[in-house]
Structure formats: C-alpha cells, structure tokens
Amino acid sequence: MSDRIADPVRFIDERTAAAPAIKKALRYLFPDHWSFLLGEIALYAFIVLIATGTYLALFFEPSVAKTVYHGSYAPLRGREMSEAYKSVLEISLTYKAGLLIRQTHHWAADVFMASIVLHLMRVFFTGAFRKPRELTYLIGLLLLFTSLLEGYLGYSLVDDLLSGIGLAIGYGVLLSLPFVGGPLGILIFGSTFPGKGVFESRMYIAHVFLIPALLATLIGLHLALVAARHHTQFRRDRRHTQRRLVGVPMFPGQAPRSLALLLIVAAVLFLLGGLVQINPIWQWGPFEPWLATNGAQPDWYLGWLIGALRLMPSFDVVVGHYTLIPNPFWGGVAFPLLVLFVLGAFPWIERRLTGDRSSHNLLDRPRDAPNRTAFGVAFLTWVFLVFVFGASDRVYVLFGLSYETLLTAFRVAIWVVPALAFLVVRRLCLQLQHADRIEERREEAEQEAEREHAERVRRREPVL
Amino acid sequence: MSRPAQSPSRRRARPLGAGRLLAMAIALVPVGAGVALAASQNGIVRPTYEPPKPTVALGEELFNANCASCHGIGGTGIEHPRATAGDISGAGPSLKGVGAMAADFYLRNGFMPLENIHTQPGRRRVLFTRKEIAALTAYVAALGNGPGVPHPQPGGGDISEGFKAFTEDCAGCHQSVARGGYVTGARVPPLQKLGPTEIAEAVRIGPYLMPRFTSHQISDPQLNSIIRYVQWTNRPDNRGGWSIGNLGPIPEGLIAWLAAIVLGALCLALGKRFSA
C-alpha cells in the first residue's frame, strides 16, 4: 500500500531533488492573524479571473468590423454593430453558461480591486511596508495600478455604449499629456478616436496576454519577496519578537485554511455571477461615437478619476496660442500619479520624518503610530471624497441635492474633511495609547496586590 | 371640502404661549381676508359652485384663480413679474396656441400649477379633479389654435426601432434604460410607469429643458416605436439576475465592496477558527 505513495514520490524526488525545497516550503510559518488573509482574497480572485477569462476568450471576437445582429434579442434585432459587441451579446444571451462566466469574470475584477485596496490598507496601517519590505510594497502598488489598466481594457473591449464612452474619456485624457499627447494618441489608437480596427486587437492582446502575464510575474515576485523576508507579525505576547516568528506552518496549518478561502472566494464570485446582474451590455446597446447615455460611469475602481475630472476647476495652461496642459491632465493624469507617488514614496517619507531607519518585523497596531494612521485616514478620505463626487449626478437624482451645490460643497470638503479626519484620528490614537497604559498599570498593580496577598497568606499574617 | 384629519401644524402642537398665539393670529389674518373664493387645504382655489359638466367657463374661473398669477389673465403670459403687481407672482409663458396637448400633459401629471417659478416643474400630486382638468384643458385649448391630445398606437411600433431611436434622441438625457439622470440645470426624470399618451405628449411638447421633437424629427410611427421601447423599460430583460436598478457601475461598485467586506469578515472567522 505505502508503495503506491512512496514510489511515485521517490520517482519525482530522484529526478528533481525537490525534497529539501518542498520541506522548507511546507514548514514556512504564517502569522496567525486574519488580516493577513486579505491579500489572499485578491490572489484567489485573480485565479478566478484567469479561469473565467480563458473561457470568454474562446468566444470573443476582437474585431470592430461591422455586422448586423439577427439573434434572439428583439430590441437589438436588425441593428448594425461590431463583431466584438455581437460576440459578447452571444456570450451573454446564447452560449451555455456564457452569461454566468462573463458576469463572474466582471464581479471578480471588481472584487479583486476592492480586496487589493483592503490589503493595501492593512499593510499601510500596520507599517508592514517598512524596511526590509519596501520592494514588496512597491510591487504591490504596481500590481494595483496595472490591474486598474487591465480592468479598463477589459470592459473597453466589449464595444458597448458604456465602454465606448469610457474610451472617449480615456482618449481625451491621453491627448491632454503635454507635447506627447497628440502623437501618442495616434500611436496607440492607430488614428484619431475612435480608432481603426488595430486598436481593438491591441487592447485585446494586452488584456488577454501581455498584462495578465505581467500581473502574474509581479504576483510571483511579490510572493517570493514576502517569503524571502518572511511575514511580519503582531506582537501578541513575549514570544513574538523582531527575530522570532510565531505562527502556523504551511502544512498542516495554513494550507487548508488557504484552500478554504480559495473555495469561499470562488463561491462568492460565482454566486454573484449567477444572481446579480453586472454590466448588462444588451441594455446599453452598441457604441457609436455620436451616442451617449446619461450618467455613464466607469467601473468603480476608476470612479475616483471621473470624480477628479469633474471636481477640477476648468482651466488650461496656455502659452501664447498653444494649450500646453489641457484640463483633463489634472484629474486624469496628475491626480492618479500624485496618489501613486505619495503611496510609493511613503516608506521613505516616513523614514525621513521619524528618523527610524531600522528593520521592522513586528507590526504596529494603528494606534502605535498616530501620525501615520492619521495621515493614512486623511489621505484615504481625500481620495474617497473625490471618488464619491464621481457619482454626484446620481446623488442628485436620488436625493435632489443640486449638482452645483454638491460641486461647491465637495471642492471645500475634500480639503476640510481630511484635515479634520487627521486631527480626530490622531487624537483617537493617543487616547487609545493612554487607555492602554492605564490598563497596563492596573494589571501590574493587580498582579502586585495578588503577590502581596499570597505572601501574607504564606506568612500567616492577617489578611485585610 | 373636508379637512385632513391632522393638519401639519396640529401634529406639532405644543402648549401655546400668549406670544405664539398672537403671532399666529397676525399670520392668519391676511390669508383669511385675501381669499374670496373657497381655498382648499392644498392651495387650489375653486368657485363655490361647480357645474356638473367640464365647461370652458369653469375652466376660465379656475384658470383666473390658480394660473393667471403666472400665465396672465387670458393666458397671455407674463414676461417679468412686478413686485408691486398685487398677486401676480411669476413669469409664466403665454399659453396661446399650446393647445389641449400641453394643458392635458401639464395638468394630468401634476406639473401645474407650479408652486414657485424657480423650481423645475415635475410630477406632483394632481390637485384638480378630472372634471376640473377637462375644463382647464378646454379653456387653454380655446385660447389659440394648438395641437390636440395625441393618440399614439405603440402596439404598431417596433421595439428594435424604438431602442435605436431612443438611444439616439433620448438616452443622452434619460439614460439607456430610461432611468433618468442629470443635465445642467435639470433633473431628468426616469420614464417608468408612464402611459403612451404622456410619452407622446412629452416628446411633442418638450417640457422644461427637454427639446421639442416635431413630426419631421420623429415621425408618428417612430414615436410609436419609442413609446413601445420606453414601456418595455418598465420590465427590461434582466436575465443576469438582480438588476440593482439598471443603473450600471455605481450600484455594481457598491455590491463589489460589500462582497469584499463580507470576504474580509469571513477571513476573520477563518483566522479565529484556526488560531491556537
């Protein structure tokens, strides 16, 4: 019996000499705190994305050649549309499980980004980005921003009305790059917007091959770096030190937990894909440059850019008769680059400000670093408010607050609210620290009293 | 006219001090003195005797009492409201030649009487009875030579044609699935649960900031198709599951975040279960 397992294992080991490496991997220690699983959600959503995406690629037609729809969906019958749009219609309305897979793919993308943001928050607020993990952190940021591009290309491929409007906005932002914008636009789109057929195939190969390959490579590097420097951990008791990691081993501790999480993530995404409608492109119809739909929005992870484009007061930098920096540059390029820069440079900024250059394997609790936590919350609030403003037209329709009022209010609020958030959060952190110290002292006093009590009992002195 | 069981002021009733009583008395006097006809609770002024049939004369009486303050006596329109002009309160357009169509649309849907000329007219509670609306409509129709109430036949329309035309002419303001939205200066209403006549009227009138579409721009058969599509959006094809309002990425983003947070919470459960 045992040979059935031992023999193949020996066969493989003799030919790969992998046993030591595998042994090491199985003994790798994972810190035992739930927040370390947030990054894994992103990883598993990525796996679902690859799996569902592969299925979709079997049926998708990356071509903007015109065709006429004669399928089962009455409101579009007889409409002229691109092959690309038609193939996604067929995936959604005709092919077996096509809609389930397509919706799961889209939900997975939305949840993927959200879980990356959650993971980033965990890393930021616990100071996990500090030396020696700055590279891991930078690669994580790169992953986030590359994923944004990947998602954008994904829904732009479909050539439905929403995606076309999104591309038009993207094209406008591209053109706003000083000096290079115009030529770059032509270079990428193959001609002026909406481009010729070449652009669709460029987006396609980028979306299904180049960027996924890049993402997979970056994920590999990210994980390899995590493993090389080992995980960080919270200091729960005296056993957890800068030099000693306490946790559960890959096997048998972490592996079943991760497997369970993989299955849970897949289950949630497929449930969403099956039960909640996402991007019903048959309701938007095909894109034509002269068409529009009110309240067209990008997927949520690009909403902050729409918010920034809308909030930015309208001014261009003009030199003579030449518009050096057209307005979309601020919201569409400068704003995300600034966010990326602040996040990316943060480990170095913090080191500069605190003078702390040492390595850190132990995590801070958010309250342990009041300035960092307060800044993080303020920064997040800033981006979040800009993001919310991206949906201001819906807010108006739903709640009747006039758009102009909202615009003025937000132009003030995006500065005032983060400042307040900074002060409040910093205060809160200090209060919590203070409460911790009182608690510590109380515990010490209690222990002291107990010891004294025991001592008295031992000496048979009268007990008070 | 029976009073509602609870008037708003009574609901908030507190023990009245002498000062409050005095203030209320002062506030009430001019109102009581100014109303010659019987004013109902909702501000509509009616003649004390209404004939059983909707006559133009009844319409005129109602118009003078409820509409002329903005639209002028005889519906000639008031271009600039004058502060000193008694109860002339606002600048309403001339109604000569707008016809039964406009009156029918604005009155049956509660767009008129407008409370305040600075607000966008829109669906409010209809304050007139059917008979009164018919009378007012007849009166406004008699003011000039205007279009009558249209009789569209959406049954003869083509849904695909309608979807296409709606996307070209209407979706920029009303959203692809007619869920409404915002344009500079106006809230664009969603178009669910509207009757064919109202849709046809709106297209031919162009209320508020909406453009008017003549039969050269949108032919009657095209209009039938559009109406067919608009009514289809009451129950669009949501074969993907829960439609979350057919609004696109905003509610989708909310659900995605909800899912991410639920997954985060499940991590909490997993982490706890396995902790030593």
Question: What does this molecule look like?
Answer:
The complex is a heterodimer of chains A (464) and B (276). Chain A is mainly α and 464 residues long. Chain A has two domains: 36-357, Cytochrome Bc1 Complex, Chain C (Up-down Bundle), CATH 1.20.810; 365-464, no CATH class. Chain A is 68% helix and 4% strand. Chain A contains 16 helices and six strands. Chain A has a two-stranded antiparallel ribbon. Chain A has a two-stranded antiparallel sheet with strand order 2-3. In chain A, a hairpin with a 2-residue loop joins strand 5 and strand 6. In chain A, helix 4 packs across helix 5 (98-125), helix 6 runs antiparallel to helix 13 and helix 14 packs antiparallel against helix 16 (403-458). Chain B is mostly helical and 276 residues long. Helix content of chain B is 45%, strand content 4%. In chain B, the strands form two sheets. In chain B, strands 1-2 form a two-stranded antiparallel ribbon. In chain B, helix 3 packs across helix 6 (130-142). Chain B starts with 7 loop residues before the first helix and ends with a helix.
